[in-house]
Amino acid sequence: QVQLEESGGGLVQTGGSLRLSCAASGRAFEFDDYAMGWFRQAPGKEREFVASISWSGRTTYYLPSVKERFTISRDDAKKTVYLQMNSLKLEDTADYYCAAVLGSASARNYDNQGHFQYWGQGTKVTVSS
């Protein structure tokens, strides 16, 4: 079983930055065998893909509207994936979820929530004007 725990959410003004973290754990869980992703769900909207990173960290993939502002990264030694969010906008307000999938494909293959096996509980990001 795999557990994912997000942290780092909060309230920030437009143009500000936040870094989300997602710590993974579990018996016999080999973090570096898993591609990781971030999704978000705004109030009244469906959950949407934000970013993914391959098991090796060599490839990443982004929702176009965040590509120039967000950066996904991973630290396999800490079993943690990060989402650095800069130049935040009001429309970035949402609950953010990390997810994991066992796989070795390029990150662009993991852009749909149906691809992912494990999910965290989410962390709330609120951007205010």
List keywords for this structure.
129 residues; seven-stranded mixed β-sheet; mainly beta; four-stranded antiparallel β-sheet; single chain
Topology:
Blueprint: E1 3-7, E2 10-13, E3 18-25, E4 34-41, E5 48-53, E6 60-62, E7 70-75, E8 80-85, E9 94-102, E10 118-119, E11 123-128
Parallel strand pairs: 2-11
Antiparallel strand pairs: 1-3, 3-8, 4-5, 4-9, 5-6, 7-8, 9-10, 9-11
Task: Please explain how this structure is put together.
The chain has no helices and 11 strands. By secondary structure, it is mainly beta. Strands 2, 4, 5, 6, 9, 10 and 11 form a 7-stranded mixed sheet that branches. Strands 1-3-8-7 form a 4-stranded antiparallel sheet, with no helix packed on it. 35% of the residues are buried. Helices cover 0% and strands 49% of the residues. The model has no long low-confidence stretch (mean pLDDT 96).
Main sheet properties: 7 strands, mixed
Taking all residues together, what is the mean pLDDT? 96
- Unreliable parts: none
Q: What are the secondary-structure elements, in order, as H or E?
A: EEEEEEEEEEE
Strand content: over 45%
Percent range of helical residues: under 10%
The beta-strand count equals 11
3D shape = globular
Q: Alpha-carbon distance between the termini?
A: 40 Å
User: How many helix segments?
Assistant: 0
SS content category: mainly beta
